Amino acid sequence: MIAFHPHLFVRIEELGGPRAPMPLPLQSGFSLDRLYRVVGVYNANESSDAFFILPNDRGELWFICQRHLRFGALVDTPAHHLPSMELQASD
């Protein structure tokens, strides 16, 4: 079982190159200037990678490999997306 904090937001830092895990978030409706709420986590037994379930900018849910993600913030809000610049200004 994988547990995660219900207020967890992550930011995209897409890995490049031929061995980058798929799907590539920036080609799947995500942006560099936003934080995304984690709505679930999945880890397949045959992989050491965890996949975070994130709602993209189009309202679609995607399984994005943790290697494309970095910690963004813990925020108690009903929003599923946050502008990252706004969060940095309020800290």
Name some characteristics of this structure.
about 90 residues; mainly beta; 4-stranded antiparallel β-sheet; 3-stranded antiparallel β-sheet; 1 helix; 7 strands; about 10% helix; about 35% strand
Explain what this protein looks like in three dimensions.
The chain has one helix and seven strands; from the N terminus they run βββββββα. It is mainly beta. Strands 6-1-2-7 form a four-stranded antiparallel sheet. It has a three-stranded antiparallel sheet with strand order 3-4-5, with no helix packed on it. A hairpin with a 5-residue loop joins β4 and β5. It is globular and about 35 Å long. The model has no long low-confidence stretch (mean pLDDT 90).
Give me a quick take on this structure.
This protein has 91 residues and is mainly β.
Task: Give the secondary structure arrangement, pairings included.
Layout: E1 8-12, E2 34-37, E3 40-43, E4 50-55, E5 61-65, E6 69-74, E7 81-83, H1 84-90
Antiparallel strand pairs: 1-2, 1-6, 2-7, 3-4, 4-5
